[in-house]
Write a structure and sequence with these properties.
The chain has 331 residues and is α+β, with helices and mostly antiparallel strands. It has 8 helices and 9 strands. A 4-stranded mixed sheet has the order 2-7-6-5, covered by helices on one side. The protein has a 3-stranded antiparallel sheet with strand order 1-4-3, with no helix packed on it. Strands 8-9 form a two-stranded antiparallel sheet.
């Protein structure tokens, strides 16, 4: 966040509990118990961090009411992990203190007037990936940054321990906990799923008049599809077991050897105009393939970068967007 000639600004700090991190069954009455799944045990050191840009300043009472009536009623969001007889188990809590899970980052005047509030949010979100969570309470929390950025009027950050679920299930629960602004009694309207088209989705059986060769070609297409599926599954299993990607600047061999842990990666992002990307795709006659999902006519490019290899990761994204602009201007 430092610019030439400007005074450096202190980073936003994270508020964490000073309670004991071990957590125990004595502090939480065992209303209901169930064993922690093997998959959840593998996710012991992983967090899911979701950043959401808001189109208006923070309305904390509305968020608090929604979290209390919707999200907090799910069993996993009212449970902690304790160890009994050497085995981790979920222990349900009869009550939930939302003040422990709703964290409002103090809004400082220097952040609101800063020339780079996006970097302030990015730094804060990056630090959440390594900050500890208090295991004496349910492992989820909301962080609210109530100052405008280039993409939003305020920002909400949802951090949850990976043992509570995978990304898709947690996003589904999060969306199910929201309500429409036009009608608070209804769920928000979601975009219709894209229509699936193409030869792979439509394989009509050829008519008898087409001849034997057409029938053989139709049957052969299914054989090819099955073969490609077997190859993909085999490569997937082999990648998990022993195959490794070549090491480049984006993937270095810095883990697994001599007990060395992989270096921390930082997620950085930049918004692109959906119209510009569509223009490039049409102008290049499908020479550009882009997979995206957009809800606000923008595409969010997200990269995981090694801060030691790319200390100026903002410049990396600026170069990416500048390259697209140069291509567009040259067409």
């Amino acid at each position: 966040m430092d610019d030439a000639g400007e005074t450096s600004q202190p980073p936003l700090t994270i508020r964490i509990s000073r309670a004991a991190s071990g957590g125990g069954a004595d502090a939480w009455p065992a209303v209901a118990e169930e064993p922690v799944s093997p998959t959840a045990r593998l996710m012991d050191s992983f967090y899911i961090v979701v950043t959401m840009g808001l189109g208006s300043p923070l309305d904390l009472p509305v968020f608090r009411a929604g979290i209390e009536t919707q999200l907090a009623r799910y069993p996993r969001f009212r449970s902690i992990q304790v160890t009994k007889d050497g085995k981790p188990r979920w222990v349900r809590a009869p009550a939930l203190n939302l003040d422990d899970h709703i964290i409002v980052v103090p809004s400082r005047p220097d952040m609101v007037s800063s020339s780079d509030p996006d970097r302030a949010v990015e730094d804060y979100v990056a630090s959440l990936s390594t900050a500890p969570m208090d295991r004496s309470r349910p492992l989820w929390e909301f962080h609210f940054l109530d100052f405008p950025t280039s993409d939003a009027m305020s920002t909400a950050v949802f951090r949850v321990h990976h043992s509570l679920g995978d990304g898709m299930s947690l996003l589904t629960i999060l969306m199910a906990s929201t309500r429409s602004a036009a009608d608070p009694s209804r769920l928000p309207a979601m975009p219709a799923p894209p229509a699936r088209s193409g030869d792979i989705y439509a394989r009509p059986r050829p008519p008898r008049t087409a001849g034997v060769l057409a029938l053989i070609a139709w049957l052969w297409s299914f054989v090819v599809l099955a073969w490609h599926t077997v190859v993909d599954v085999t490569l997937f299993v082999a990648t998990i077991a022993f195959v490794r990607d070549p090491h480049t600047l984006f993937k270095r061999d810095n883990g697994g050897g001599d007990g060395e842990l992989p270096r921390r990666k930082r997620f950085v992002n930049r918004s692109l105009s959906l119209g510009d990307v569509k223009f490039l795709k049409e102008a290049l006659n499908c020479a550009l393939t882009v997979h995206y999902q957009s809800y606000s006519n923008t595409i969010k490019v997200i990269l995981a970068v090694d801060e030691e290899q790319f200390p100026d990761h903002g410049q990396l994204l600026d170069d990416f967007t500048e390259s697209l602009r140069i291509i567009k201007d040259g067409l």
